[in-house]
Amino acid sequence: MSPFDLTGKVALVTGANTGIGQAIAVGLAGAGADIAVAGRTLPSETAASVRHAGRKFLAINADFSTIAPVEAVIAQVLRHLGHIDILVNNAGIIRRSEALEFSEADWDAVLNVNLKTVFFLSQAVARQMLAQGEGGKIISIASLLSFQGGIRVASYTAAKSGLAGVTRILANEWAAKGINVNAIAPGYIETNNTKALREDERRNRQILDRIPASRWGKPEDIAGTAVFLASRAADYVHGAIIPVDGGWLAR
């Protein structure tokens, strides 16, 4: 059996309506996992692709601006799919403003979704994984701003930098319990969120000139790394934040 085979596994992916989350959900399904997705938008395209791969699919409506939905989301996955073996923390938001003008509301909104809920959802899923007795894989979507400062995104940079730390602490505590906790740091990826950047000729050229691979990434570039981290091939990978950035950080 391939070490990348996920047959019999159940993955919960947050924010999988489009872009990176959708690609990860479809990629995990292609490797054999059944998929539950949780978020605010009905993921119709994701559902069709997962089912086309011959896997079970469950959509759960959840607003992760608070931790209120966490227990109900897990309960629904267990009710319909029986267990949880893989968690992908992909849901996230961003707010842009000069640091001198940044509001408390924009700070709290981003930290709540991108860091607080990620921690408490991971905690709840880890408890379930331990109860199942077979360990599991937790993968969070970090950012280049887990390594860099950025501009005009104070709360996003704080959250993604914090997420790198949370990934390490959870790995330290849970590795010996059979739970792998890691993160992926995407570079500049072709998604709805980056459409404006790609359409700005000057900014697009500046970005491409910095990327050794000389192209924007595609969501599928992230999916492959997620399949690896979710699989037996990554059983000895703990606390890693893996950049998938076309070489951006190496420049």
In short:
This protein has 251 residues and is α/β, with parallel strands linked by helices.
What does this structure look like?
The chain is of the alpha/beta class and 251 residues long. The protein has a single domain, classed as NAD(P)-binding Rossmann-like Domain (Rossmann fold, 3-Layer(aba) Sandwich). It is built from 8 helices and 7 strands. It has helices spanning 19-30, 44-52, 70-81, 104-132, 154-174, 195-199, 201-210, 219-230, and strands at 10-14, 34-39, 57-61, 86-89, 136-141, 179-186, 241-244. The protein has a 7-stranded parallel sheet with strand order 3-2-1-4-5-6-7, with helices on both faces. α1 (19-30) packs parallel to α2, α1 (19-30) crosses α8 (219-230) and α4 runs parallel beside α5 (154-174). 44% of the residues are buried. The model has no long low-confidence stretch (mean pLDDT 97).
CATH superfamily: NAD(P)-binding Rossmann-like Domain
Radius of gyration: 17 Å
**CATH fold name, please?**
Rossmann fold
Strand composition percent: 15-25%
User: Could you estimate the helical fraction of the residues in percent?
Assistant: 40-55%
Counting helices, strands and paired strands, the structural category is alpha/beta
The main sheet comes to: 7 strands, parallel
* H/E series: EHEHEHEHEHEHHHE
Total strands? 7
Going by CATH, the architecture would be: 3-Layer(aba) Sandwich
